[in-house]
């Protein structure tokens, strides 16, 4: 019978660092604290920490820069690449598909966030909601789109489900661009839509903070359905107007 090899301290450090990366404490492209600081926080020697960092570099999770410290690999943030973004954005059906997917994913995120969010999560959620509210005052679609996407990402973080979180992170750029595009169509259809969206976001956050999981899920799903319905009507109206314009251009009379 082969003898069991004792577990190395560096393997324990690797496991802890992997957890911090997976849960989003250390984000893609972010620099890790200095080795001295990390060693103190983990209560280990610097040689053991350095060995663990080297293992993570070998696995492609970290990038070590000469004289510049250790960084979480940027590749971890590339869930949907730029070429794929461009391809999806060129397909009208992809916008509908994304909203359909968001209804399922964000409903689940809101449900679990209401059940699992900690006091710190509540603070981050409230900060994200306040940033979204502030963005409305600046009348900037880009700023509002970014704040909206960050708000929904904060809910995914509060769900404490790593698959939900990294799915949302992988879709983040696509989500942000989709929100910016949607905002234009929503507000063009009816300027009062902004207040309806604000009320929907407020309902989602209120249900999560109150720990009402079913209500949070319903509010998140209702929000996406509302966006889908308004945009669908806007597209239908655009198609009707384009059809009428073509008839006028090619009329034989």
TrEMBL record:
Please report the stretch or stretches of sequence annotated as the HTH gntR-type domain: 7-75
A Pfam entry, by short name: FCD
Has the keyword Translocase been applied to this entry? no
Please list the GO terms describing molecular function.
DNA binding; DNA-binding transcription factor activity
Q: Does the keyword Transcription apply?
A: yes
Top-level taxon: Bacteria
**Keywords attached to this entry:** DNA-binding, Pyruvate, Repressor, Transcription, Transcription regulation
Q: What is this protein called?
A: Pyruvate dehydrogenase complex repressor
Task: Describe the function of this protein.
Answer: Transcriptional repressor for the pyruvate dehydrogenase complex genes aceEF and lpd.
